[in-house]
């Protein structure tokens, strides 16, 4: 297949604009806005650029709120270490399928309850599944299922999870040594 054909193939595919991309764009625009405000520019130009950037930032905020109403408030709550496990469950229950970033942050939270982690174990976004595999509150049966996943190497993260049952952890660590070609040698001095 010619290089041009490959580009057409990928150009024809629609890539979803999930919350992670939109949030990243908004963060970048906010940084550019700070830079423009701090720059020594002619007043009229600076005001024009600030207005334009403010409009772009507001547009990204509207996009986030279309995905999940009240997105900024929910994102802040999901990152707050004081947010209760019950509140995290409520946030997860209202989660949009396009909100990959909020799903990722919820599964990173130290207070994420086992039910939330179990429900996210089959999420389409790999970073969410990886967070579930490494989270110490993930239920044992979910860890066992993730360790057997044929689609991705989640077993490695399960092997390093302190909540993984000893029998499974030993089996997975033996698998790690086998994958590395045996026990690693340790050099001293």
Largest sheet: none
Give the integer mean of the pLDDT values: 89
Binned strand content: under 5%
Work out the radius of gyration: 22 Å
Q: With helices defined by DSSP (H or I, 4 residues minimum), what is the helix count?
A: 11
Please tally the β strands and state the result. 0
**Head-to-tail CA distance between termini:** 53 Å
- Helix-strand string: HHHHHHHHHHH
- Which class of secondary structure composition applies to the elements? mainly alpha
Share in helix: 55-70%
- pLDDT under 50 segments (min length 5)? 184-189
General shape: elongated
| Total individual domains | 2
Describe the structure.
- There is one protein chain.
- By secondary structure, the protein is mostly helical.
- It folds into 2 domains: 18-67; 77-179, no CATH class.
- The chain has 11 helices and no strands.
- Helix 2 (19-38) runs antiparallel to helix 3, helix 9 crosses helix 10 (154-160) and helix 10 (154-160) packs across helix 11 (166-179).
- Mean pLDDT is 89; it is low at 184-189.
